[in-house]
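Let us practice reading a record.
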Amino acid sequence: MSTKVLKHTKIPRAELVKSLRKRDGDVCAYPGCEERLDFEAIDSPREVTIDHWYPQYAGKADGWTMEEIWALSNLRLMSKKCNAKKGDRIPNEDGTLPEKVTKTFRYRRDKRASRPELCESCDNGHNLGSDEICASCGSDAQRFPRWAKVKTQDCDHELFWCIWCSIGVIERPSSLGTAMRQADSDELGEWPVES
């Protein structure tokens, strides 16, 4: 038993453009754009493109057939730049387009500029011990301070930390338990020697 795959027969581009031009005229269909389309331009921002008003990916996700996606009612003529500006946004019920989502931080320097000033005394908590608070900025210790970073083979996974500790492959004991063991030890990271 074979299943028949229905193929979509595409209408040639010239016929689509002719039908859409007859329906909509020579004005770009992007909301708010009054620019007249240049049907002779090639590889320019004013080149005429066919836009799927309801994007193809959304139509496929909603179970539309190829005939519905390529139906004249879903197609619009737009200039190349307006079609790129519209992108894959799904239009609102009233025919407007939702606001384009912009990234909060476009450049790394902008992200850094929004951070608080670097404290020279404690390096924003990276140079503090587990129970210390910086007198200059009031920061407390970071969970993985830079002074305690060691290579994996040298790590005790309690006082010091390595890459495996920081990503959670090796579970570290609670900071309270570590602080109690440090208080009982004679040297940093060493257990007291019982006599």
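A brief commentary: The mean pLDDT is 78.
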